[in-house]
Amino acid sequence: MKLNFQQKLIGSFIIIFAAFTAGIIIFEQQKAKRYKTEALQERLDAYADEISQFVSLNYNDASLDSLLALMPSNLRLTLIDRNGNVIYDNTADDYTAMDNHSDRPEIQNAIKNGHSTFIRTSASVSQPYLYYAKDNGNALIVRVALPYDIRVQSFLKPDNAVLYFIIVLFLSGIVFIYYVSRYFGRSITQLRDFSIALNDSGKMPPQEFPDDEFGQVASRLADDFKRIRDNEMQFAREREKLLLHIQTSAEGVCFFNSDRTVAFYNGLYMQYFNTLTGHAATSGQKILSDAYFRPIVEFLNNPANDNYYETRLVKNDREFLLRLNIFEDESFEIILTDITAQEKTRRLKQEMTGNIAHELRTPVTSIRGFLEILLNNKLDQNKEREYLERAYAQTKTLSALISDMSLLTRIDERHEAFGFTEVNINRLLEKVDSDTSAAQTAKNISFTTSIPEGLTVKGNESLLYSVFRNLTDNVIHHAGENVAINIKATKTQDGNVRFIFSDNGKGIADEQHLGRLFERFYRVNEGRTRESGGSGLGLSIVKNAVRLHGGDISVRNAIPHGLEFIITIPGA
């Protein structure tokens, strides 16, 4: 049976106290026996001295018998010469026949030390005696003895009153130790019960500890235990959230222990790793043994390096960023990020920035040139008006460019700002026709539609207007004169609306340009297009607006000539 803390504490105190009590009892018994033995020896020594003085005078057996009559009746007297011969013994009928006593221990010790005490059985009378021999330097050694019977044994036996007192004191101490141990052990027991209940239930059980030092310590330990448990639970929750975040992260992450074994990795890490190596590995450990990633191992093997390593990897037109972070405990993480889209966007923005600068340079330079001529030269009124009109035309071009760029930016970055409603297509196209009628008339362009009555789509009316307005302006500016625009719309089986915007103008002879028509600032003929106006962003706005509506757009050459745009937009 396993003992608890209180039982161990009580048991330890009892053992210590019992050993201490037993030591006191043994010491007291020995001391009492020694005192009584010394007292008896003093009595025997007095008898021996008295007999020795008497023997030093003239004596005979009868006189000795008379002397012994004055002493205890059971006192035995033996006179022994220095050769060990018995001269007198009051208990023997014929002491002359007794054995030589020179080998008796009490005699030998008396000759050496002057006196000696010994308890043994007499070889002469076969009875145990307490012998006391004394050598006063005379010719004879006086030996007196008392039978070692119950009376002498009782005299030499220690007084039991002290023993009883010590036993009572011991039992009282045991009771005191029990209550003291129980008092001090109660806080420990409560703390144990508290920890067991907390581990079993996982909740903080109600617990009140005694209002003393042990209770305060137990209370503090309970509070610390609660904080540790709360911290463990919080750590587990945070770890779970971190692992969930890593699993759903757009980056491939693998954590390694200090011995370079894998601790954890997500699925995207293995996907990117297999893409880069062309293998079908299932363990994140392979990255440290694959030749493609040898620079990583070289970096890890060189302690002089920093704790961070970064490199770019390209495979099959995909670009990845590899980052390695080494932590203080020499564990590390490897992060693989697919930066193909970011790099493409970066290059696109870089190209767009150059195109914008290029497009802005022409109107700004023209405006500056016209203004410098007006400021530095005195011209007639007609010439001044001509230059002002040219400058004004360039500002309109600049304004249109800024407006188109702003619209593209809103579509790319703030598409949630465009509200969607049900848009009536017939009314929308009537407005486009009305707004461009003057330009159509100038180039003898016809505008016809074939739209089912009441056809609606769910979208942003302003953006849908920009789609058809830009396509119409594109025909006006680039298709030539005497051109017919025709717009048809039909509903598909999946509920979408399919538009075909076609013209019979010049078209594009080289079809390699068709795939790039929707690129920003792209022009089939740079010089002629610039003269005919436009920012080079119209078709890019068309494509982005259609995709914002969840649709798609494509372009092809019409038969026999002209262009044909096919647009698909979800219906209302």
Give a quick account of the main beta sheet: strands, pairing sense, barrel closure.
5 strands, antiparallel
> Radius of gyration, Cα only, in angstroms?
62 Å
Report the count of strand segments: 17
In the CATH hierarchy, what is the class of the largest domain? Alpha Beta
Distance between the ends? 81 Å
Q: Report the CATH topology name of the largest domain.
A: Heat Shock Protein 90
Helix content: 40-55%
Derived from helix and strand composition plus strand pairing, the structural class reads: alpha+beta
Separate helix tally: 15
Q: How would you portray this structure in words?
A:
With 572 residues, this protein is an alpha+beta fold. The chain folds into 5 domains: 7-156, Beta-Lactamase; 161-242, no CATH class; 249-338, PAS domain (Beta-Lactamase); 343-412, Helix Hairpins, CATH 1.10.287.130; 418-570, Histidine kinase-like ATPase, C-terminal domain (Heat Shock Protein 90), CATH 3.30.565.10. It is built from 15 helices and 17 strands. It has a 5-stranded antiparallel β-sheet, with helices on both faces. Strands 7-6-10-9-8 form a 5-stranded antiparallel β-sheet, with helices on both faces. Strand 14 (484-491) and strand 15 form a beta hairpin. Helix 5 (160-201) runs parallel beside helix 6 and helix 11 (425-435) crosses helix 13 (461-478). The two termini are 81 Å apart. Residues 527-532 have low confidence and may be disordered.
